[in-house]
């Protein structure tokens, strides 16, 4: 029986000034998913490892994404998806995006790769929408493509892979506090001051320039978010202290990963990333909050076959 | 008697999605300024050619900029600035910025270049402020540095020169209608929808990526302004038709130059730029509005010595 196994990486969306458009891919943190043919049409979900997740395909992110792909192909093939969930749901590092990206990547491979990886993004977005209510690409795009991606437009969808400097590492700390995505969304405002918006796009333009020129100092100065971080960070206990600790450890910049509660810091080199993670961890140690740490190069590759 | 002559280029600020942060420099359209020492301290302004401009240094953009520079140097040197104004004031292609940039560049040269060109930007901004009320850098920065520049931050001031693709040309048409900068400013709103702001910074990030990767098609798709253009373009008769004509001629994108009434179009190659300028000109021919056309490579150099 043919079996395909896929690594589905965690991702950091937003990246300070890039709210709703930027995302980056971690190299080593992620889920595993296994794919088999089955004789009857449709998708079957098996949770092999991890938290209790729905197994009805229409209630499961991977199921919805895989079904969208099969529908587009008008395929009556059947697929079993076995999930080893390692990314904690609700952590803010793209847990549902990893499932959605992995599902479409694996099913596409199983069926002989009729779609390019870029073309898989809309199907993964359909899966993501089950979890967040709206189809977003800022996690699924870097999960599928790797690296750092920018969503230029949703209508039509256009995702641009950006250049990633060689020494760029990310430290992520997940303080294990509950923070609902709906709460993170509800603090956002529908209007924003023009002055702040101008500063935000000035920083975003500078960040993109810094990536191409591998200017780490400029990259650090550009990691500013005057619009969303002030609204969301009060929902994360210890945020200010953790961010200060990251910057004091030599991180280029730090912010909320996705809609939180995870906090990311971009760093030049692995050693600074390790020190940064340790420093942020010490803050939550004092607060007696359990954490999970992820230290990773910004991955050059996204979702991929592992066997 | 020592004489220094300087070419002070015209500039296009904003560039669609880059409102208040982006600007680019024209290669051949600009003013001439000549600088001489004088025996008594202070600045003397002579208008050698062009429209009637104030000659009192404190009422003249070049005078204010030059005075700011001399003050910073605590210099009691005296300078005569002779202006050949060729860029029409109020055209939207950085007429006052050219005067401000030229003044600080020339005086700096005359005094043995104590400042780098980057360091001259704040003094030129002081001159610009006389004309627009607020110190802006989106015209003076590209006028001084050449190329395409991005203002990341005003506090502290940080201007980033971006990569300019080799074949990038700009066609500018100045329909000779009166449009006060104050009117262009008054239509702007202090608040902007978050959705539109996100689309704007998505486009700006894509535009910066397109510059570095020399991806002309992406550059064209990124030249979208959903925030300012809809408010300002109704102030410019014929705008929609001129923009449509530019795009139909193969321009990558088109928008309002600065606060108008000039309209710019970015093009790949000189031939398309010429055709684009002619097509826009035909629109204003039908409307019986006199025009001035400027076709130029995006300049790699800014304000410079010419003798």
UniProtKB/TrEMBL annotation, chains A, B:
EC number: 2.7.1.39
UniProt keyword annotation of Amino-acid biosynthesis present: yes
Primary enzyme class: transferase
Record pathway: Amino-acid biosynthesis; L-threonine biosynthesis; L-threonine from L-aspartate: step 4/5
GO biological process, one term: threonine biosynthetic process
Annotated compartments: Cytoplasm
Limits of the GHMP kinase N-terminal domain: 65-147
Family annotation (InterPro entries): GHMP_kinase_C_dom (IPR013750), GHMP_kinase_C_sf (IPR036554), GHMP_kinase_N_dom (IPR006204), Homoserine_kinase (IPR000870), Ribosomal_Su5_D2-typ_SF (IPR020568), Ribsml_uS5_D2-typ_fold_subgr (IPR014721)
Catalytic activity: L-homoserine + ATP = O-phospho-L-homoserine + ADP + H(+)
UniProt KW keywords: Amino-acid biosynthesis, ATP-binding, Cytoplasm, Kinase, Nucleotide-binding, Threonine biosynthesis, Transferase
Entry keyword ATP-binding: yes
Pfam families, sorted: GHMP_kinases_C, GHMP_kinases_N
Gene3D superfamilies, per the entry: 3.30.230.10, GHMP kinase, C-terminal domain
All copies of domain GHMP kinase C-terminal, residue ranges: 208-284
GO cellular component terms given for this protein: cytoplasm
GO MF annotation terms: ATP binding; homoserine kinase activity
Purpose of the protein: Catalyzes the ATP-dependent phosphorylation of L-homoserine to L-homoserine phosphate.
UniProt record similarity statement: Belongs to the GHMP kinase family. Homoserine kinase subfamily.
Protein name: Homoserine kinase
Native organism taxonomy: Bacteria, Pseudomonadati, Bacteroidota, Flavobacteriia, Flavobacteriales
Gene: thrB
